Amino acid sequence: MKSLIKLATIKLLPSLYYRISSYRFSRYCRTRFEEFQIRFSEDVYGNNQIHVLTGPFRGMKYYQKIVWGPITPKWIGSYEAELHEFITDIIDSQYSVIIDVGAAEGYYAVGLAWKCGSSRVFAFDIDPIARVRQRELAELNEIHNLEIRKYCHHSDFSDLVRGRTLVICDIEGFEALLLDPKEAPELIEADILVEIHSHHGLDAKSVENLMRDRFQKTHTIKTRRMVDREPKEYQSMEPMLQKIGSDRLKEALNEHRHGSQAWLWMKAEP
Q: pTM of the entire structure?
């Protein structure tokens, strides 16, 4: 019964549903992460501006806010370190258009707008608090080439894919519906970085295979899977982390993922 009510609310009153779910998740994240991240920011940054310490977005300004999940891996720059090779490639490529679907508070959308000043960046997220955080992060970094939107539909790809285009997608399983070249043929021309999740009876491996089936004829596909973080590695890269004990730093590096997370980097063939 609860699942039926949920589906009916999403269909009939989507804005209300996502506003309520956003509030609930924000409250959870505040309870789960706030105390730790306050102490961590005080110990690492003191009274100085919080900024990304390592990785492709090193130097980007950040804030002390509640976001979706832990924020400390983003401060450190270890967030989704499995993708750093791809993100560096993306920055070097200087895409004409970057579309980030499921942008959360804007780590990638703002980061890529910051690093790729000539790119038009579009950030989509159904969560109202996430969109507020995106605006705050963009203002903090004086970003002017970012447009923040709510829902992403197949028609948005038709409207936005122009020239060299990148699509980043992290939408908790709905990639199985959105990333469909039959519904959005323009995706065949875009490079796509997608985080894989289970979706409505399909486990994550099945969704991964679905993505491969859809794009293997038009894209070169590489896979990355979650790996552990080593505190000593980040202490060697950033002196500001050397004063943090290994156990605390390990927790700060923890992205709190479940199971074996996978990503696909799908580059359109010329």
A: 0.92
